[in-house]
Amino acid sequence: MIKIENLHKSFGSLDVLKGIDYEIREKEVVCVIGPSGSGKSTFLRCINLLEEATDGAIYIDGVKINDPNTDINKIRTEVGMVFQQFNLFPHMTVLENITMAPKLIRKMNKKDAENLAFELLQKVGLREKAYNYPQQLSGGQQQRVAIARALAMKPKVMLFDEPTSALDPEMVTEVLDVMKQLAVEGMTMVVVTHEMGFAREVADRVIFMDGGVIVEEGPPEQIFGNPKHERTKAFLSKVL
Amino acid sequence: MGKRNRVFLFMLLMAFAVVLAACGSSENSSSSKDSKSESGETSLKDKKILVGTEATFAPFEYMDDNGNIVGIDKDIVDAIFTELGMEYEMRHVGWEAVFQQVQNGELDMGASGITITDERKETFDFTEPYFEATQVIVVTEDSPIESAKDLEGKKVSVQINSTGHQAAKKLLGETNPNILAYENLPLAIQEVINGTAQAAIGDNAVVYEYLKNNPNAKLKVIEDDAFEKEYYGFMVKKGNKELLDLLNEGLQKIKENGKLAEITGQELE
Amino acid sequence: MEILDFRWDIIWNYREYFIRGIWVTLILTICGFLGGFIFGVFLGLGKNSKRKWLYWPCKLYIDLFRGTPLLVQIFIIHLAVIPSIFGHSLGFMVSGIAALILNCAAYVAEIIRAGIQSIDKGQMEAARSLGLNHFQAMRKVILPQAFRRMIPPLGNEFITLLKDSSLVTVIAANDILYAAKVVSGTYFRFWEPYLAAAALYLILTFIVSKIVSFIEKRFSVEYNPRKDKKDEGRVAA
């Protein structure tokens, strides 16, 4: 469903992605792990065009998305993103955060949008917070709202950029549980994360990135249990 | 916290008091700045007299290409002081500043085409007249205005707090918003050219000089008996009898020997 | 001692000048600010744009009007610009308001620009990731947040404009300062008229700052930005 061909990204003279080739199939959960500076976030952000590839191609359902003629905004309605810093809109209530895009872009009417929002809030376990403002919620709650907000657009794939890295440990579980739920329901997900436990449990495949390239990839049993590359081994020995 | 605030407030009040005292004292000290001799009578003659003017009032005072003040007033002052054997320095300070600074002592005298008026005499002393003038009206060539009466309801520009300004107030009313008062007369006349005002009122000698120097301005002058004769005098701080007597002495001398008439082109009685 | 011998009756005699002065000052300032604000928003957004043809004209305009004194701008607009465009002057009110609008716009533009840039990049990213285009993101997410931040500096600009409006006396606009000058010259008294003028300006700026404070509080009631993640105890029932 997502095809990445020879993806390169440089910031000025700094090469961050040095040629990535990958395919992500429907309903797959792919976790991306690696040291900081490896380019994992940049890789993820290229998929929804928050970063523009310097070279190479990215296809979603056969459509080349980094082509100058494609409608970026339309692509992004199909690709949901959850950020490390949540990025909820502080001047809107939780409900408004979720209903804003469906109303504005999918032209949903207020009632339908709110029904959808309540459904999603129920799913992430925060129905009673609908009328609160983001600042009144804990980090874990905010992130769950952020997930609901992204889901409201009914995307084909969900991207997660280190979703739990900014959370206190006791709140990590509640967010990971929501993500597990999504995976079980068959959402295509690409998750950049440091949560090895989650990757091992939920991922269909794990990518290990280092120095702007994919060093090794494969099912979690392989990557965690039987890593082939020295660098993979070295990294895992430090984090596990 | 309360104690700190009180200390701060006290210091602020002290600072304010110092400033106030300084303002008060400077009024008295500047006139004696240059004086080096002891006795009162001769000290004024040795002192360099500071003369203030607004040098945008040709032909009485204006700036030449080198930034020097020139004009009729300058020439008369020069003649007087030569007769008296005294030194002076003429400074361009601005019209309103002439009054302020003569009053507070920063300047010894004002020589700026100043008309002698009763209001001004309440606060200042004037020499004998040295020039006779009157107000005239300046309008554009195609203006329908023909006399002072026609100024009713029109916007009239003047130099702020000049006798032209007083004349306008007398004609149109003390608080009439149609009187537009500017820093100097050239600006007031320019506003007639631009159309902001329909007429300007100013001293005849100056107006005619302006027209002479700006033949393309398309202006015309209207004289009207509504305007009284005015007399220019040199202005000193009220009570400065010593300087006043000296000036009058010099003025009388140059009247008698014809120098005054030579400079102004006017025979004054 | 003459300093303490105040004659307030001269202010009373010319109260018409002062009252008219208050009106003129207020009209000049309010019109100048409203016009300057509208124009300034466009300038500020333009200067934020990545399109060169928008950015450069806005930048040049802003630099020009922030880099020259308002007094000079007033003279040029009143004595040169308006007469050349319209063939004749349109009076000091038009010139004064025009100068204040053009000047204020440049400062408002910078306030707008700074306000927008102060919003976290993540907000724009989140909005765009949902599929909003640039304009929608600005309208729904960035600008509402930015405006709240702009209220204090905008309030300051209004107060500055109120004080700077006194410069129009040079084109004989009969505002508060003009009243003081006329009274001062008529009676040769300097304390009373100028103190009276200062007092009037002070009263006006005081009233304005109270209004601005009120607006600030009103807008920040619902929304108190806290980035502290450790504040989990703040879960409201």
UniProtKB/TrEMBL annotation, chain B:
Residues 1-21 form the signal peptide. SMART domains: PBPb, PBPe. Pfam families: SBP_bac_3. The keyword Manganese does not apply. Residues 48-269 form the Solute-binding protein family 3/N-terminal domain. The keyword Signal applies. One of its GO terms (cellular component) is membrane. Keywords: Signal. GO terms for molecular function: ligand-gated monoatomic ion channel activity. This is Basic amino acid ABC transporter substrate-binding protein. It comes from Ureibacillus thermophilus. The lineage of its organism: Bacteria, Bacillati, Bacillota, Bacilli, Bacillales.
From TrEMBL, chain C:
Keywords: Amino-acid transport, Cell membrane, Membrane, Transmembrane, Transmembrane helix, Transport. One of its GO terms (molecular function) is transmembrane transporter activity. InterPro entries: AA_ABC_transptr_permease_3TM, ArtM/GltK/GlnP/TcyL/YhdX-like, MetI-like, MetI-like_sf. It is found in: Cell membrane. Its main location: membrane. The keyword Membrane applies. The chain crosses the membrane at residues 22-46, 67-86, 92-112, 194-215. It comes from the Bacteria. Belongs to the binding-protein-dependent transport system permease family. HisMQ subfamily. This is Amino acid ABC transporter permease. It comes from Ureibacillus thermophilus.
